[in-house]
């Protein structure tokens, strides 16, 4: 929205500097994008004195003038104006000047004579419409004075970036109302005269010639029209052209220019029809229905949709309502009777029509944001009055004003105490009322802290007390609102334990060089078959999405593992073959129809590829089950979950694991989750070719197993002793069973501090089906330094117990 300062001053008296006006408009919510000097094009144009005038030797109608333009020497200018004479002061465009119409002035020759500039007419400088000769500056001037300074030409154009909720400022009057609210003292906007000139109104009623019928009043709540006779189509007067050009609009003819002028003045779009082209003198406002094509003013044909609102005459559509008129009823040089439309259209309807047709006009821009439903008649009268004067026309008595859905004024009960709390201000009800009244609100005081606020019809964005709070804040000044910090108690509320646990888990697993993955909760419905889940498995109770974003995301996940496979696949496709990822999220199990699914929070992880990057000092070595088991043990150690055991997964609970390469993780009677190597067939289902190892744990179970308190104990004062035990057992004997047996003995013997497996061997010279296991037992006393004799008997008893319990042999 462009507004010139000179135009603005017609409605409000403002003497502030343009920079200050720009700042105050911006702070009031009307952001000023740019501020331009309207007469910037007068640079390099100065006042010059004509000292000598001689006939051009080679052209009868040209003169050669010696001109004082303020320099050290006179300059020569060839001039064709008939009124040039010695001693007159004139505008002179020096080389480098650019006149309206992109006319660039430079030194050259005209018919053989040097010309070092141009003596200008007022029309050439767009100062008035006089083209009879060069501009005669009456009075005394100093040669060389910039023309803008000499004539005191000053005007500023503000370009305002309006938000969609402020259509009331899409007219100069609306902006003037805002300016009047922040000048001192506050001013109310001075509206133009909306009464019709009595000497132009004839005794013939518009109802005798025209009628309006609104069929679809839901899309057109109000339609007003006026009629003029004996209209003379001609170029607009200079003042009207100048107003339109100041804001970037191109003049067309007097009738069209007046509709544009009134639209830019009031914010109410208008349209003028050639009434002789309106069949039967009838205007019908209806949906397009069966009409399929329409040619607009720009001679382009548009496909119509049934719901588009059209302005029709007795036979055909003549305008796309609120968007653009039709070629079949446009104003032409032969027009003598003009019907002027001023209406209010449904904003949503206009927005849809403009979008579907691809037409964006100044009118649609305003209609689709919402105009003043009570302003149609005033704008109509303003336009008709101007047309009567400028076009020398006669006005038909009366106007048509079809108003099937009357506007109901909105009243808001405003609690000023609540407003002050909301804004952090301390304004009394009187001050608040004065602020709101300055921009057109009606105020009725009720008690000391309540106001009944009548919302003006042009403020379509104000519907509740919070909107009034915003009005007060922006008009009083955001900068005047004191910055206050809330009174926050020193003791903050503790985070939910589950939130703390999630963050702790993230820190621990990231410490094992894992990256966190975040996948959609929606997955493909065939994931159960890809994981080989048996019928009856709870994970087959999936919740179907009614409106999925794609066919690949049609159900809520009941397992985290498919998402990890997809992440693995994407990384491998990018040549990242070594991967450690984890995800914390929820899985969902469908319940009864119509009820929300059951949610369960899980943590799952995946490793694949090599243990380390391949370098000159390390050989390629792929990860295996024990790499993942080590991560899990370290993870549970960090969470201080004790008494955990890994049990071989024998049943068909998790058929996506390779048989013999998977385990339960338990602590007491609680199953934390599972881990194992993924079966090759499952990997193939997901298009994967390299081994992958996965763990899948229940977060709620982990939380239940966390210790309530952590007990610290001092560092040991005495050294430890370590002894090894190597036994040969059957391949079906698990290391966990042996460790469990040793730990059972350790519970009775305080000297045993730690036991762990440090070597395993299979193959010759051992018999088939046998394996060698080597364990290290660490002994320590809390009261003395141990010697060999202190642990010899205990170590021998442990060895014998293992040999008897597991039918083991000692190595040769």
From TrEMBL:
<dbReference type="InterPro" id="IPR012340">
    <property type="entry name" value="NA-bd_OB-fold"/>
</dbReference>
<dbReference type="InterPro" id="IPR020825">
    <property type="entry name" value="Phe-tRNA_synthase-like_B3/B4"/>
</dbReference>
<feature type="binding site">
    <location>
        <position position="471"/>
    </location>
    <ligand>
        <name>Mg(2+)</name>
    </ligand>
</feature>
<dbReference type="InterPro" id="IPR004532">
    <property type="entry name" value="Phe-tRNA-ligase_IIc_bsu_bact"/>
</dbReference>
<dbReference type="GO" id="GO:0000287">
    <property type="term" value="F:magnesium ion binding"/>
</dbReference>
<dbReference type="Pfam" id="PF03483">
    <property type="entry name" value="B3_4"/>
</dbReference>
<keyword id="KW-0067">ATP-binding</keyword>
<dbReference type="InterPro" id="IPR036690">
    <property type="entry name" value="Fdx_antiC-bd_sf"/>
</dbReference>
<feature type="binding site">
    <location>
        <position position="467"/>
    </location>
    <ligand>
        <name>Mg(2+)</name>
    </ligand>
</feature>
<dbReference type="GO" id="GO:0000049">
    <property type="term" value="F:tRNA binding"/>
</dbReference>
<dbReference type="InterPro" id="IPR045060">
    <property type="entry name" value="Phe-tRNA-ligase_IIc_bsu"/>
</dbReference>
<keyword id="KW-0820">tRNA-binding</keyword>
<feature type="domain" description="B5">
    <location>
        <begin position="407"/>
        <end position="483"/>
    </location>
</feature>
<dbReference type="GO" id="GO:0009328">
    <property type="term" value="C:phenylalanine-tRNA ligase complex"/>
</dbReference>
<feature type="domain" description="TRNA-binding">
    <location>
        <begin position="39"/>
        <end position="148"/>
    </location>
</feature>
<keyword id="KW-0694">RNA-binding</keyword>
<dbReference type="InterPro" id="IPR009061">
    <property type="entry name" value="DNA-bd_dom_put_sf"/>
</dbReference>
<dbReference type="InterPro" id="IPR005121">
    <property type="entry name" value="Fdx_antiC-bd"/>
</dbReference>
<keyword id="KW-0648">Protein biosynthesis</keyword>
<keyword id="KW-0547">Nucleotide-binding</keyword>
<comment type="subunit">
    <text>Tetramer of two alpha and two beta subunits.</text>
</comment>
<dbReference type="InterPro" id="IPR045864">
    <property type="entry name" value="aa-tRNA-synth_II/BPL/LPL"/>
</dbReference>
<dbReference type="GO" id="GO:0005524">
    <property type="term" value="F:ATP binding"/>
</dbReference>
<dbReference type="Pfam" id="PF17759">
    <property type="entry name" value="tRNA_synthFbeta"/>
</dbReference>
<dbReference type="GO" id="GO:0006432">
    <property type="term" value="P:phenylalanyl-tRNA aminoacylation"/>
</dbReference>
<feature type="binding site">
    <location>
        <position position="461"/>
    </location>
    <ligand>
        <name>Mg(2+)</name>
    </ligand>
</feature>
<dbReference type="GO" id="GO:0004826">
    <property type="term" value="F:phenylalanine-tRNA ligase activity"/>
</dbReference>
<dbReference type="Pfam" id="PF01588">
    <property type="entry name" value="tRNA_bind"/>
</dbReference>
<dbReference type="Pfam" id="PF03147">
    <property type="entry name" value="FDX-ACB"/>
</dbReference>
<keyword id="KW-0460">Magnesium</keyword>
<dbReference type="InterPro" id="IPR005146">
    <property type="entry name" value="B3/B4_tRNA-bd"/>
</dbReference>
<keyword id="KW-0479">Metal-binding</keyword>
<dbReference type="InterPro" id="IPR033714">
    <property type="entry name" value="tRNA_bind_bactPheRS"/>
</dbReference>
<keyword id="KW-0963">Cytoplasm</keyword>
<protein>
    <recommendedName>
        <fullName>Phenylalanine--tRNA ligase beta subunit</fullName>
        <ecNumber>6.1.1.20</ecNumber>
    </recommendedName>
</protein>
<keyword id="KW-0030">Aminoacyl-tRNA synthetase</keyword>
<keyword id="KW-0436">Ligase</keyword>
<feature type="domain" description="FDX-ACB">
    <location>
        <begin position="716"/>
        <end position="811"/>
    </location>
</feature>
<dbReference type="Pfam" id="PF03484">
    <property type="entry name" value="B5"/>
</dbReference>
<dbReference type="InterPro" id="IPR005147">
    <property type="entry name" value="tRNA_synthase_B5-dom"/>
</dbReference>
<dbReference type="InterPro" id="IPR002547">
    <property type="entry name" value="tRNA-bd_dom"/>
</dbReference>
<feature type="binding site">
    <location>
        <position position="470"/>
    </location>
    <ligand>
        <name>Mg(2+)</name>
    </ligand>
</feature>
């Amino acid at each position: 929205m462009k507004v010139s300062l000179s135009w603005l001053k017609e409605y409000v008296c403002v003497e502030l500097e343009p920079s200050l006006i720009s700042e105050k408009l911006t702070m009031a919510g009307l952001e000023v994008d740019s501020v331009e000097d309207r007469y910037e094009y007068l640079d390099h144009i100065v006042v010059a004195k004509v000292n000598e005038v001689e006939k051009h030797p080679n052209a009868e109608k040209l003169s050669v003038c010696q001109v004082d333009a303020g320099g050290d020497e006179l300059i020569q200018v060839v001039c064709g104006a008939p009124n040039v004479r010695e001693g007159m002061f004139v505008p002179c465009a020096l080389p480098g000047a650019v006149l309206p119409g992109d006319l660039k002035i430079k030194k050259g020759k005209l018919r053989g004579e040097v010309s070092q500039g141009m003596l200008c007419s007022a029309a050439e400088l767009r100062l008035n419409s006089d083209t009879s000769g060069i501009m005669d500056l009456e009075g005394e001037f100093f040669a060389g004075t910039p023309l803008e300074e000499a004539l005191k030409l000053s005007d500023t154009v503000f370009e305002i970036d309006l938000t969609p909720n402020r259509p009331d400022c899409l007219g100069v009057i609306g902006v003037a109302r805002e300016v009047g609210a922040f000048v001192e003292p506050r001013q109310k906007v001075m509206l133009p005269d909306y009464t019709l000139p009595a000497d132009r109104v004839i005794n013939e009623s518009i109802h005798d010639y025209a009628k309006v019928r609104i069929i679809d009043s839901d899309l057109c709540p109000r339609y007003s029209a006026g009629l003029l006779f004996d209209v003379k189509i001609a170029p607009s007067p200079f003042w009207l052209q100048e107003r339109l050009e100041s804001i970037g609009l191109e003049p067309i003819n007097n009738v069209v220019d007046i509709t544009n002028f009134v639209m830019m003045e009031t914010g109410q779009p208008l349209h003028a029809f050639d009434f002789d082209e309106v069949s039967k003198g009838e205007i019908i406002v209806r949906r397009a229905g069966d009409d399929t094509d329409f040619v607009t003013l720009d001679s382009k044909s548009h496909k119509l949709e049934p719901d588009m609102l059209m302005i029709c005459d007795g036979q055909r559509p003549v305008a796309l309502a609120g968007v653009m008129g039709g070629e079949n009823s446009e104003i032409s040089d032969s027009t003598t009777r003009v019907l002027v439309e001023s209406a209010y259209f449904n904003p949503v309807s206009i927005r849809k029509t403009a979008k579907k047709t691809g037409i964006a006009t100044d009118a649609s821009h305003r209609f689709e944001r919402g105009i003043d439903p009570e302003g149609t008649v005033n704008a109509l009268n303003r336009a008709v009055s101007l047309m009567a004067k400028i076009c020398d026309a006669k006005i038909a008595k009366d106007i048509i004003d079809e108003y099937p859905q009357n506007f109901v004024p909105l009243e808001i009960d405003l609690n000023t105490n609540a407003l002050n709390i909301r804004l952090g201000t301390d304004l009394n009800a009187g001050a608040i009322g004065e602020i709101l009244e300055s921009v057109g609100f009606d105020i009725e005081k009720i008690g000391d802290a309540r106001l009944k606020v009548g919302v003006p019809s042009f403020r379509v964005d104000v519907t509740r007390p919070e909107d009034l709070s915003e009005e007060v804040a922006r008009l009083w000044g955001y900068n005047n609102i004191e910055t206050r910090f809330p009174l926050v108690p020193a003791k903050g509320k503790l985070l939910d334990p589950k939130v703390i646990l999630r963050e702790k888990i993230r820190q621990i697993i990231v410490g094992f060089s894992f990256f966190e993955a975040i996948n959609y909760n929606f997955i493909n419905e065939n994931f159960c078959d890809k994981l080989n889940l048996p019928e009856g498995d709870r994970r087959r109770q999936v919740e179907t999405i009614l409106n999925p974003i794609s066919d690949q995301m049609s159900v809520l996940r009941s397992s985290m593992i498919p998402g990890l496979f997809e992440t693995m696949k994407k990384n491998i496709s990018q040549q990242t073959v070594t991967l450690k990822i984890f995800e914390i999220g929820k899985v969902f199990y469908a319940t009864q129809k119509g009820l929300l699914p059951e949610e369960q929070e899980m943590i799952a992880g995946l490793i694949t590829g090599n243990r380390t990057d391949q370098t000159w000092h390390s050989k390629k070595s792929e990860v295996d089950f024990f790499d993942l088991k080590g991560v899990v043990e370290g993870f549970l150690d960090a969470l201080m979950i004790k008494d955990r055991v890994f049990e071989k997964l024998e049943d068909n609970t998790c058929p996506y694991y390779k048989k013999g390469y998977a385990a339960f993780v338990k602590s007491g009677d609680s199953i934390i989750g599972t881990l194992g190597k993924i079966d090759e067939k499952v990997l193939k289902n997901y298009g994967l070719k390299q081994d992958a190892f996965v763990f899948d744990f229940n977060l709620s179970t982990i939380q239940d197993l966390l210790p309530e308190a952590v007990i610290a104990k001092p560092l040991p004062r005495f050294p430890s002793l370590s002894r090894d035990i190597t036994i040969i057992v059957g391949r079906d004997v698990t290391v966990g069973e042996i460790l469990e047996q040793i730990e059972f003995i350790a519970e009775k013997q305080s000297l045993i501090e730690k036991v762990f497996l440090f070597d395993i061997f299979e193959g010759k010279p051992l018999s088939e089906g046998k394996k060698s296991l080597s364990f290290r037992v660490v002994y320590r006393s809390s009261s003395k330094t141990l010697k060999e004799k202190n642990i010899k008997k205990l170590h021998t008893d442990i060895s014998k117990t293992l040999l008897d319990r597991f039918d083991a042999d000692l190595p040769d």
